Amino acid sequence: MTEPGGKRNTRAGMGRSAGARERDASVVRALLELHGRTYAREAGIRLRNTPVPLYRLLVLSLLLSARIRADTAVFAARALFDAGLGDARSMAESAWQRRVDALGAGGYRRYDERTATQLGDGAELLLQRYRGDLRGLREESGVSERLQRFPGIGPAGADIFLREAQGVWPEFAPYLDRRTREGARRLGLPASSRELARLVPREELPRLAAGLVRAALDRKAADEVLAAAEA
């Protein structure tokens, strides 16, 4: 079994005791209940395999990958969409100041000018290369690397996109990257992608990934899950 990042998982397939499996199930139930809302849903994106939701997820992934609070990135994404900048054509044709203002309205002020430029350039690239439709990228090889050709999307941004998109692009499931495995270790869950994926139905993988990321980023969230699982 090869983990994301190319590392071989030599422990895949090793069994866990019945007690450990029962504890894992309790922790995952608590995680999904308390912190299992996807970031796309928080940003008001009803994710489907269609151009507009996929583009909005790309925008959200860019915002979330900056060194800024996740809730600020989510608010900024909502502000952009509320300002009528929820598709590649509208973003590309918008004035730079309009993008800056929308980001500022969402509280995304530290990186607003640079991000406004990246959003405009990225939308133009998407229109030129894929006619505004990321499903064209899905059909190519090296999807993570191709995502990183969009301004502002680095390895972290590509991971964010694919963690959420695996629900509608199932060929990438289970997409449980380094950050999700950090959360799993903090919660005492199995640290391999394959074993983690066994803990939920396939359609719940994006929620599991989102919850594990929150556990990795926030010790308080992890402690809350553990307390609920033990209650």
UniProtKB/TrEMBL annotation:
<keyword id="KW-0378">Hydrolase</keyword>
<dbReference type="GO" id="GO:0004519">
    <property type="term" value="F:endonuclease activity"/>
</dbReference>
<dbReference type="InterPro" id="IPR011257">
    <property type="entry name" value="DNA_glycosylase"/>
</dbReference>
<dbReference type="GO" id="GO:0006281">
    <property type="term" value="P:DNA repair"/>
</dbReference>
<protein>
    <submittedName>
        <fullName>Endonuclease III</fullName>
    </submittedName>
</protein>
<keyword id="KW-0540">Nuclease</keyword>
<feature type="region of interest" description="Disordered">
    <location>
        <begin position="1"/>
        <end position="21"/>
    </location>
</feature>
<keyword id="KW-0255">Endonuclease</keyword>
